[in-house]
Design brief:
Layout: H1 3-23, E1 30-44, E2 56-70, E3 74-89, E4 95-109, E5 115-125, E6 130-132, E7 139-142, E8 148-159, E9 164-176, E10 196-213, E11 216-227, E12 235-245, E13 250-260, E14 269-281
Antiparallel strand pairs: 1-2, 1-14, 2-3, 3-4, 4-5, 5-8, 6-7, 8-9, 9-10, 10-11, 11-12, 12-13, 13-14
């Protein structure tokens, strides 16, 4: 191969690489803002229905939001979930079917590798009074910020792609109560009644966002916390939402949430709901 041919091939190769580099889309930095609200209604009525049945009515309002400020060296993501709903069966009074306030803020510093340090803050409580309907008359067992859960954490996070991201680190957890210290914050082994509980341990948080199809998405968040005191007991908060968007305004959601906290109940807690209704994107 002559020197001139080699020179020509080198020039063409460099030109191709240059064009490819120019065609590659530049990384976009700045704010990503999302806020989606939904209203779901279910109603059944009977009048002289020979096969029998009982009137029922249920409603639920929910808002999910996410604000992400992504920069070259930092990423600050704030997200949350708010949901409240009631159901009425027959002649019974309205009962709470969904009640949740959840907030999370995660600040990450990019080292240029897959594993990056982070600091996070979590808060969780409910809107309204909660009741135990297994007794008559009903017995109130919770309220707004009673209990309230807070967690501050520091550690490292791993992310490759947009589908899965996980983080783990040292965590400080506080449980605050006012009128209902049992079983949320009070230690039965002490003579005093504690209205707050502070724990130090390790946390692990994994987020999954997977699209089965253009209109169907699974969002899953698995939160694990283990206090150094009682390290063998792991608190589990696993929230799964399957969303199918029918068109611009209508969607169907299936929510399965699993909780385990040995301080509250020796058995796992499970909640499942299915809703069809109107969905609207604010941002």
């Amino acid at each position: 191969m002559t020197h001139s041919v080699k020179t020509t091939m080198a020039i063409l190769l460099l030109a191709g690489l240059s064009v490819h580099a120019q065609d590659a889309p530049a990384k976009k930095y700045g704010w990503l803002k999302e806020a989606v609200g939904s209203v779901n209604l279910t109603q059944t009525s009977f009048d002289n229905w020979a096969a029998g049945g009982e009137n029922s009515f249920a409603w639920q309002i929910s808002v999910n939001y996410k604000f992400v400020n992504d920069q070259e060296k930092t990423n600050w993501a704030t997200s949350g979930k708010m949901a409240y709903g009631n159901t009425k069966q027959g002649d019974a009074d309205f009962r709470t079917s969904s009640d949740e306030i959840k907030f999370e803020s995660v600040y990450k510093y990019k080292l240029g590798v897959w594993v990056n340090p982070y600091a996070s803050f979590n808060a969780e409580t409910q809107f309204a009074k909660g009741y135990d309907y297994s007794v008559d008359p009903r017995n109130q067992i919770s309220a707004f910020m009673d209990p309230g859960y807070f967690r501050e954490s520091f550690g490292v996070g791993y992310q490759q792609g947009e589908m899965v991201k996980t983080r783990a680190g040292l965590s400080f957890k506080q449980t605050l109560t006012r009128d209902f210290p049992d079983p949320y914050a009070n230690d039965p082994d002490t003579p005093e009644t504690e209205t707050t509980r502070s724990e130090v341990g390790l946390e692990s948080v994994t987020d999954l966002n997977y699209k089965f199809a253009e209109n169907t998405k699974l969002t899953s968040k698995l939160e694990l916390f283990s206090a150094f005191q009682g390290f063998e007991e792991i608190d589990v908060n696993w929230d799964n939402i399957l969303t199918t968007k029918i068109n611009q305004y209508f969607s169907m959601n299936v929510n399965v949430k699993l909780l385990y906290d040995h301080d509250i109940s020796a058995k796992r807690q499970l909640k499942q709901s299915m809703a069809f209704g109107i969905t609207y994107s604010f941002l």
